[in-house]
Amino acid sequence: xxxxxxDFWEKESIYRFDPSSDKPPFTIDNPPRYAxxxxxxxxxxxxxxxxxxxxxxxxxxxxxxxxxCFDVNGMPIExxxxxxxxxxxxxxxxxxxxxxxxxxxxxxxxEMTRQFRIFGESMDPSVYYQTDAKYYRRLTQISFxxxxxxxxxxxxxxxxxxxxxxxxALAESEVEYxxxxxxxxxxxxxxxxxxxKKVEIATTRPELxxxxxxxxxxxxxxxxxxxxxxxxxxxxxxxxxPVVADEAVERDYGSGVVMICTIxxxxxxxxxxxxxxxxxxxxxxxxxxxxxAGPYQGMDLKExxxxxxxxxxxxxxxxxxxxxxxxxxxxxxxxxxxxxxQVPQWFLKILDMKEEILRMSDEITWWPDFMKVRxxxxxxxxxxxxxxxxxxxxATPIPVWECTACGKPHLPEEEQCYVDxxxxxxPVPVCTECGGELKGSEEVFDTWMDSSITPLYNTxxxxxxxxxxKLYPMSLxxxxxxxxxxxxxYSMVRGKKLTGKRPWDTIMMGGFILAPDGTPMHASKGNAxxxxxxxxxxxxxxxxxxxxxxxLGKDHPFRxxxxxxxxxxxxxxxxxxxxxxxxxxxxxxxxxxxxxESVRKGHVELKPADxxxxxxxxxxxxxATRSADTYQFDKVVRAVVDFMxxxxxxxxxxxxxxxxxxxxxxxxxxLYTIGLGIPKLLAPFLPHITEEVYQExxxxxxxxxxxxxxxxxxxxxxxxxxERIGRSVVDxxxxxxxxxxxxxxxxxxxxxxxxxxTDSPEExxxxxxDIRSTIKARDVTLETSEELREVLDGLDPVFSELxxxxxxxxxxxxxxxxxxxxxxxxxxxxxxxxTITFDPEDGGGPVTLTSDMVKVRKRWTFRGRSVSHLTVxxxxxxxxx
Length: 881
Known about the structure:
By secondary structure, the chain is α/β, with parallel strands linked by helices.
């Protein structure tokens, strides 16, 4: 069934964005999915959330742009290619490696497109893009050229975060911090003027001793005050380094003495700048020790660290080792510990934009709104400009040729882009500054340089100014909360400096999908959930139902019970619609539409139960619309499913079953209205079953060729008084059905006469047949309260009270209480006085019983006959045998 409708939507171009449409546009800055691997549970939920919005907005009359797109740049694909072929990028021909990346990505794109399709994601291939295409990379390069001309781009020999495994610089946003236990090594430095004097210094990076240039102590630390101004000799390397006083030293950490190297961490870097130290390079770009390390040259970091520690232990220089919890910066992609290296890189100025970005953030609506705090915290924490160059292969080439003599950069004209400086000739023959030779850059852009122009690409920036002015800013950016500091932030930077405007009106944040036990999913832990496996079992709609239960901005465990519940909802909807459609099956479209119009104009009187369900339906529409407008999908689905199941199926349909085949206009209008409205309200979430229902039961009466481009429901009735009366009819039936159940009477069993005693009999006159047929009563009548009597029927002993006091006389007391000639008289006395006194004639004398010891038993009669009765609001339901 699902495949059939997917084929139909594709054939009919149901989701096509129409550039010439007069409808208001709603543009979605869809996250281009990495073409690096299979769909996981987080993808399934996150993209389905976005699809909810797209489908809802189409039904609200918008011309929706929801592009099918893929991110085909950067390390994720490079790493997969290296793993697949067992190669290392640096040891392979550059352009052959790029070809392997393109081939790998293309193979994945076809499968990922199929996966989007089978989950019912309504992405539009007519506005397709992938970020490695020349048409896309061209815009990335042009944006770079414009920012360069603004003076926002510069190249500097500045320390950067560096991944030795990936061999590239990383932006601050690409560094992930992880808790780790390292070894804190306490080692001995020697006073330069006194070989016998030793100073203990604790370090986690002994391999950086070869670049140690300074030692610092706190100025208020009495232990080391005499060291300030002297010099120490480093162990192993024997370098002479001065000792300074610096308030940044933590006296309680390690020995309270710090060695400052280039560059162990950000604190080292601050000291390096403060004291103007040389940027000595002890570690190279591949994570190996340089010639400064002497005998350790060529060793990787781990090997060098172990060897230096071993050598210091042999020399008696290592005093002790202890565990040291650390928050270690790692590469976002391969999780290798990062280093700080001074390598020439291209930067985009962002530090001077902090206030601009925060003001822009206030112009954007955030769902949920607390996510805006994360952006603010990130912006306020920034200390470096954005490093936009990468030493990789598979990404957009930086469009620069540099002079080999003077270093002057030469950029192409915009109309020359797209260019690849490793293949294409420079824009001018020689350097315009000194006439030197020009060499094309071998560096590429950070992948976020491509990703952060998606709002510009989608809105036809520099390609169609008319469309751009119509579509920019985009309506919505949906994304995960973990990339606020990258994709969201960088898009805002680019939008501000290239257009002067925010990139979108609204940003919608998704959370993570966790393993069923609430822990992060990892294939290595064996707790990863494969959504494709569940799709094979349940289909797309039940999984989408689970996605709808996931609140925006929160992390959720994968809950199979919600998938199963979704499957139940799908079946319930289909069966319920099949039953409801009996009321109008076989009626010609023109006749049905005339009948519906007649009811709308008030020519037909609706029954109270009809008014009740239409009123409740209208409130459900209002609630669903309000929640959908604020992307609270869980509330939409909960409201609609509760209405469908608990009010329509459990009550209204049971009540009108007897009317289904009577061709009653009021019944037909009501069933048609809610029968069409419910699948429309669920259509964004359960697209396949709702299309099935629509095509099977409603298409011939409606104009839209698909439910997904039909009009979103509107409220049809607001009648509080009518709803109250109808609710009373429903409550009467529910109370009688509950009475049957509690007394183990089959719900389908016939009943005797039902008498309804009410002060407002006119309210129920038109509902008597509905009540009678639903509960299968012999007759239902409206009565007055005078003929219903409560009479005394005897006394019931409370043995827990009587026993302790009259244990030996119990038999004789019970004989009197059950005496048919006396029990009514005694009951009247107890009811009137609260006590009764009598002689059981057992030789023990009179007894006095209180209302705690014995209770008055009463029964109800109607016209002299014993009856059961139920109280429903302000009326009484009398049940005769």
